[in-house]
Amino acid sequence: MFLHLGKDYVIPLKDVIAIIDVESALKSEITKEFLEVAEEEDFIHDIAKEEIKSYVISEKVEKGKNNKYEIRKSKIYASNISSTTLFKRANFIDNIK
């Protein structure tokens, strides 16, 4: 299964670690600091190009040389789609009215 994040971006659901509402993120000092550091270290990929409504934290695991070790690549997507809509698309929430 895949999750459409907006624009032309789709990621595998198995790579999704968290979907965070931007308003909730900005209320928490720890989360705000985490996002600031992530932005400084170029982990945030802004696909919103407008008002950011949610962040999707993902991690892709790739095999290293000769399948001896794993390489983990983290990326945070800033999306203009609400966290509720992303949860629905991912089928994480059933029967929301």
Shape: globular
- Approximate helicity band: 25-40%
β-strand amount: 35-45%
Largest sheet: 4 strands, mixed
Secondary structure: number of strands: 6
Summed up, the helix count is 3
The tally of domains stands at: 1
Return the string of H and E elements.
Answer: EEEHHEEEH
The helix-and-strand class reads alpha+beta
Spatial strand arrangement across the major sheet: 3-5-6-4
Whole-number mean pLDDT: 89
Low-confidence stretches: none
Distance between the termini: 23 Å
Rg computed from alpha carbons, rounded to a whole number of angstroms: 14 Å
Descriptive key words:
97 residues, 39% strand, four-stranded mixed β-sheet
Describe the protein's architecture and organization:
This protein is of the alpha+beta class and 97 residues long. It has one domain. It is built from 3 helices and 6 strands; from the N terminus they run E-E-E-H-H-E-E-E-H. The strands form 2 sheets. It has a 4-stranded mixed beta sheet. The radius of gyration is 14 Å and the shape is globular. The model has no long low-confidence stretch (mean pLDDT 89).
SSE topology sketch:
Blueprint: E1 2-6, E2 9-12, E3 16-21, H1 22-27, H2 29-40, E4 44-46, E5 54-63, E6 70-79, H3 83-89
Parallel strand pairs: 4-6
Antiparallel strand pairs: 1-2, 3-5, 5-6
